[in-house]
């Protein structure tokens, strides 16, 4: 629920879910990825319609991005299932460390850059969006990264406004999450007890996402991003150090 609220408020923090499932619920990495991607589907479905309603969601580009992500996610699941559990755990912590650092770096003051309008971004080749979707989906599906933390900065580099980038990334997280969740649940020989966590995970994440979206204007999102990023870096460093020294 807390991670869902952070996503609703700021568009980030999804990458924390697999770590929560591994560290707090002591699930194995594959089961953690299955639950996390199921939750990402919920937050994506609940989050993107608001951006469409406000005119910040270019459907053409979203379609090609999602197409690439569907293919990339399938490939990423095969990579994730092929890796030994301890290697996958290390990758999860490294992704959290890099993601938290990326959030802080993106918050640094930058020189004003003129963003292109939808007409100009629409001139880009279809292959660009398919490639971005495929490459980021492979990384996300194999590591448990939520999607927006990787996709948003790339879309902004392509010229989309921050709101459009966040909205597109939320819809894209559905395209990544569906094949990833199915792949890990079907191919991961997951225990029945993990399946029983699916509904509570849906409900908690969904409530958090809706609550966060409804209260985004009341909370300083910048402060929350700093807290999430610093906390993520701290947890990742602590866990990685423990694995190296242990």
Please give a structural write-up.
By secondary structure, this protein is mainly α. The protein has one domain. Helix 3 packs antiparallel against helix 9, helix 4 packs parallel to helix 9 and helix 7 packs across helix 9.
Number of structural units classed as domains: 1
Mean pLDDT across the residues is 79
Largest sheet: none
Counting helices, strands and paired strands, the structural category is mainly alpha
Subcellular location: Cell membrane; Membrane
InterPro entries: TM_pro_TauE-like, TSUP/Inactive_protease-like
Transmembrane segments: 7-24, 30-51, 63-81, 87-105, 126-159, 165-187, 194-216, 222-241
Protein name: Probable membrane transporter protein
Could you give the topology of this structure?
Blueprint: H1 2-10, H2 16-23, H3 29-53, H4 59-82, H5 85-106, H6 118-121, H7 126-143, H8 148-157, H9 162-187, H10 192-195, H11 198-214, H12 221-245
Helix pairs in contact: 1-11, 2-3, 2-5, 3-9, 3-11, 4-7, 4-9, 5-12, 7-9, 8-9
């Amino acid at each position: 629920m807390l991670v869902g609220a952070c996503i609703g408020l700021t568009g980030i923090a999804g990458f924390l879910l697999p770590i929560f499932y591994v560290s707090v619920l002591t699930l194995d990495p594959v089961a953690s990825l299955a639950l996390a991607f199921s939750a990402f589907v919920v937050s994506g479905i609940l989050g993107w319609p608001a951006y469409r309603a406000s005119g910040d969601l270019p459907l053409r580009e979203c379609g090609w991005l999602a197409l690439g992500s569907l293919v990339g996610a399938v490939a990423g699941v095969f990579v994730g299932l092929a890796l030994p559990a301890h290697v996958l755990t290390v990758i999860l912590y490294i992704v959290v460390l890099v993601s938290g650092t990326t959030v802080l770096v993106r918050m640094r003051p930058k020189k004003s850059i003129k963003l292109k309008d939808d007409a100009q971004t629409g001139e880009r080749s279809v292959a660009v969006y398919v490639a971005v979707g495929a490459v980021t989906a492979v990384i996300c599906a194999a590591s448990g990264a939520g999607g927006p933390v990787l996709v948003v900065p790339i879309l902004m580099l392509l010229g989309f406004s921050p709101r459009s980038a966040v909205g597109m990334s939320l819809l894209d997280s559905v395209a990544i999450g569906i094949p990833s969740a199915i792949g890990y649940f079907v191919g991961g020989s997951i225990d029945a007890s993990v399946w029983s966590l699916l509904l509570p995970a849906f409900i908690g994440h969904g409530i958090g996402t809706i609550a966060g979206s409804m209260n985004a204007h009341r909370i300083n999102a910048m402060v929350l991003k700093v807290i999430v990023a610093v906390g993520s870096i701290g947890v990742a460093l602590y866990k990685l150090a423990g694995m190296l020294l242990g």
